[in-house]
Amino acid sequence: MKESNNIEKIKFLADRMLGKLVKWLRILGYDTSYPSLDNDLPLILTARQEGRILLTRDANLIKRRNICDFLFVKGDHWEEQLAGIIKGLKLKIDLDLKTFSRCSLCNTPTKDVDKKEVKNFVPPYVFLTQNKFVYCPSCKKYYWRGTHWQRMIQKIQKLSLNESGNNS
Description:
Layout: H1 6-9, E1 11-14, H2 19-27, E2 31-33, H3 40-50, E3 53-56, H4 59-62, E4 70-72, H5 78-88, E5 111-113, H6 115-118, H7 124-129, E6 133-136, E7 141-144, H8 147-163
Parallel strand pairs: 1-2, 1-3, 3-4
Antiparallel strand pairs: 5-6, 6-7
Helix pairs in contact: 2-5, 5-8
């Protein structure tokens, strides 16, 4: 039996209180919209129209009847929030396959680029030490798995393990 790849199916829309969480969901490859809407109704309508799960910290918003698919996000810090989403939706985090497949700034899918193409756009040390690069066609930003990468991976793995039922 083939396991479904839920990352392709799950799309999020986050309210204005969740900016840091949005960045991390995008880093993990999740299509995460972050509109500059402050009113509840446009958020709800956008989530419905685009088939997105509304992520919110607004307790009053979720009291409305039949709003849309939503997840009430608990915690004050993005780490707690992400851990809650991983647990609540039983997400499988694939750090190799989907990480950096979306721009963390604008949510646009990134494109793999050949190392030769990035020489004039990344620091010389990065060019010498890295082999895999992705590019955001909207932001014109390049991403690579630099020194920060291992720290990010360790943090995400810790969150995933803590929330996947391995409560010691």
